[in-house]
Structure formats: structure tokens, C-alpha cells
Amino acid sequence: MRRYGHAYNAGDLSAHAVEAASAQHTVVVGQQIAASVVARLAHNILDLNDELAGVDTRTEETPQQHRPATIITSMPGFGHLLTAELLAATTR
Known about the structure:
Blueprint: H1 10-23, H2 31-61, H3 69-73, H4 80-90
């Protein structure tokens, strides 16, 4: 699995889980309970993925409130996250 900025591609992960569950022909004791736990965990992963997207957005927006942010982000290699970290470490 590759990581695309958030959870390890949560959409693909959940699609693979559903595909694997659909292909299963053997029924085992406790399967329904396990299925409900997995479904709940999959929803939690998707919720966390959405929350991380919000954090990423705030991380991009917050440094822009500081005057030197435009200058710092214009330097090669300085993205929004590194700029936010630098401003947090040097601004009081």
C-alpha cells in the first residue's frame, strides 16, 4: 500500500477488504462479530483520513498569517509543513 498524504490510501484499503470478504466462501464461528468490528474500524479509518485532510488544510493556511511565510515558502524545498515547523520553532 502506498501512502498518499493521509492514511495509507484508505479508499483502496477498504475496497480490498470488501473484495476479500466477498470472495470468502468459508463461514467460521464469530465471523459476524468480526465483520462488524472490521466495518467499524474501516469507518474509523475513513473518519481519521477526513480529519487528517482538515489538519493538512489548516497547516497550509496558518503559516500564511505570518508575514515571512511567503518568503520562506518561496525557497526551494520549503513547503507548507516545513514552513509551519520553522515558524513554530522561531516565532514567539
